[in-house]
UniProtKB/TrEMBL annotation:
Keywords: Cell membrane, Membrane, Transmembrane, Transmembrane helix, Transport. This is Permease. The chain crosses the membrane at residues 12-40, 46-71, 78-101, 107-127, 148-168, 174-195, 227-252, 264-284, 296-315, 321-340, 360-382, 388-407. It is a multi-pass membrane protein. GO terms for molecular function: transmembrane transporter activity. GO terms for cellular component: plasma membrane. Its main location: membrane. The keyword Cell membrane applies. It is found in: Cell membrane. The keyword Cell inner membrane does not apply. Gene3D superfamilies: MFS general substrate transporter like domains. It holds the Pfam family MFS_1. It comes from Rummeliibacillus stabekisii.
Length: 432
């Protein structure tokens, strides 16, 4: 295929990739919103809500390395489509169950586990394929459009979910997710995942290794790249402390402050609006020269916003003022997330060799979420026995302290110096 046709095909991928993400994420967000409200209204317990989060996080942590090995060994297109179809079957299975029986927590938890496993394979396969779908000059645009699609879905889905919740039944929400997941699989089937890929599955040495040897090789590759090590350890501890907000945010607003469902949906949508605005900005601008610095500042900002969540608990506000406060906080929170994630994702896309992408991204995902199940259990328990301000202020302080230590100036300078070396030299060091 000549360069002109490849460029046109890559342009097609930019939009089909975005459309697939928009549709599937919209369905998933509507489902997550409805299920979260259903669990909290049914049980009134932060622990039950945290248990569903654990059912999402724990399988991703355990299955991640295996998913990376599969993504580096077999066709990534087949993996992505198969994972999407498994999600479709799982959600339609829960739909049928809800029509014949009363929807129960065990059924929800089992479905969450299946969706989590399928999502892991889909996420690792898709992330590993970005450099195969689009040309190098448009990687940041692809990542930003991907984030914009997720944000657009997140803007609409909580608002729609908040309005529909109570007006329609849970099976209606399940049907939305099932149809969206199926449409996503159909769109993905039209894409060429190896258009720009620098790999050959049939000749890959990964296929000749045992799974454990292959995973070990991927870990060795990471250990020889300081920038990847810095990102892993930062993500590991930051995600642990962010568990305080993940568990507590919905619990505080719904149970403690009595925010009604439609208003809570708009608050969630404000976060997505912030993500959408900044993602559009990143899609149009050139890459950051020092992505780790941008990420460090963004994480510190998240820590500050986490502490501000407690303000209406300490200083009583009228309902309208409380709604406006949390909507503004969510908008700022959403604006910070792309500034943390996108520059680092583009950096890693260019830094990691194609034959290692699956294993590296799966290890990153696994390590980033390794402490999250413990975080969900710990904070779910703490919110039932301690005042929320103590938990959020303490987590905010530890979050800022952690990023200050792990991304101290000397680490950023060393990582930047290493990143300026040719990618081939880094790869040779890793596999030697």
């Amino acid at each position: 295929m000549n360069d002109s046709l490849k460029f046109k095909r890559a342009t097609y991928h930019l939009w089909t990739f975005t459309a697939s993400k928009l549709i599937s994420t919209f369905g998933a967000q509507v489902y997550a919103f409805a299920i979260s409200f259903y669990i909290l209204k049914m049980t009134g317990s932060a622990s039950s809500f945290a248990a569903n989060l654990i059912c999402n996080i724990l399988p991703r942590t355990l299955i991640g390395p295996f998913a990376g090995y599969i993504a580096d060994t077999y066709s990534r297109k087949v993996i992505v489509i198969a994972a999407q179809l498994v999600s479709t079957v799982a959600i339609f299975g829960l739909l049928l169950y809800s029509l014949f029986y009363t929807l129960s927590l065990p059924a929800i938890y089992i479905t969450t586990v299946i969706l989590s496993i399928a999502s892991t394979f889909s996420s690792v396969g898709f992330t590993s394929s970005i450099t195969g779908l689009v040309d190098e000059k448009r990687i940041q645009k692809a990542m930003s459009l991907n984030q914009m699609a997720a944000s657009m879905a997140a803007v609409a889905s909580p608002a729609i979910g908040g309005v529909l919740y109570g007006a329609v039944s849970i099976p209606f929400f399940l049907a939305i997710y099932g149809v969206a997941s199926l449409l996503g699989a159909i769109i993905e089937s039209t894409m060429n995942f190896s258009l720009f890929a620098n790999r050959n599955v049939e000749k890959s040495t990964v296929a000749k290794e045992s799974m454990f040897a292959s995973i070990k090789d991927g870990i060795s590759y990471i250990r020889l790249q300081p920038i990847l090590m810095a990102i892993i350890w930062t993500a590991l501890l930051i995600n642990f402390f962010m568990g305080a907000l993940q568990v507590g945010y919905s619990f505080l607003l719904i149970e403690k402050l009595k925010i009604i469902s439609s208003h809570f949906g708009f608050i969630e949508g404000a976060m997505a609006a912030g993500m959408l605005f900044i993602s559009g900005y990143l899609a149009a601008r050139k890459e950051f020269q020092s992505p780790l610095i941008i990420s460090k500042r963004g994480i510190a900002g998240l820590g500050i916003l986490m502490s501000l969540v407690t303000l209406p608990l300490l200083v009583p506000l009228p309902y309208g003022g409380m709604f406006a406060f949390y909507a503004s906080l969510s908008l700022l929170n959403g604006a910070l997330l792309p500034l943390i994630n996108t520059p680092l994702q583009v950096l890693m896309m260019k830094l990691i060799d194609d034959d290692y992408k699956g294993r590296v991204f799966s290890v990153l995902e696994t390590m980033a979420m390794a402490l999250m199940p413990a975080s969900m259990i710990l904070f779910g328990f703490l919110y039932d026995v301690l005042p929320a301000p103590w938990i959020l202020f303490g987590s905010s302080f530890l979050l800022i302290l952690t990023v200050s230590i792990l991304m101290r100036p000397s680490v950023i300078r060393n990582a930047t110096t290493f990143d300026q070396k040719p990618v081939n030299e880094q790869t040779n060091r890793a596999i030697s």
